[in-house]
Amino acid sequence: GENVEQHPSTLSVQEGDSAVIKCTYSDSASNYFPWYKQELGKGPQLIIDIRSNVGEKKDQRIAVTLNKTAKHFSLHITETQPEDSAVYFCAASKGGGSNYKLTFGKGTLLTVNP
Amino acid sequence: KAGVTQTPRYLIKTRGQQVTLSCSPISGHRSVSWYQQTPGQGLQFLFEYFSETQRNKGNFPGRFSGRQFSNSRSEMNVSTLELGDSALYLCASSLTFSSSYEQYFGPGTRLTVT
Question: What is the pLDDT averaged over residues B88-105?
């Protein structure tokens, strides 16, 4: 089955710096790659996603890049703010029907220091 | 539009008991997926329902079961609880069972087994 590796497991940055989280996946048939942010006591919140027919997607301070050949995708957060502090999860999915499920990375605890 | 709701939010049960958790998806969403989140294993897929049918199942024992009602609300049941079942159980809803559509998570039910 699909396997998703996520690095680093913890990341500490100063406010205003950029943060980058990287994920690799094993199944070349995966075609959908969402990123979730989870704050303490809450469920994961979808923050951005990318599909395999796109190489990069941006939404304000957040961007995601996808390299299908290398089977890796990354989350980039620019101008980090303290409220960006949370655990971030990458995930991969393919198709539908019996293939329809998200396989998650282990998460990255991002701490933004004021 | 209201988000995904899960009840109860917290639950304490004794080993050997059974438990039922409930999930109401976003209005109009017909696919409901369940995930287990633990510090050691991360987020793991349990099963997914669409039109009252289980369409996909993860690698969990038969003690974990679920169902979906005609209004798309879903319940999951865990029988003969074990200490290792202590976890955050998350429900996610989507328009349909396809990676063409995003999954949105509820706040989760925190289950503690003593």
Answer: 86
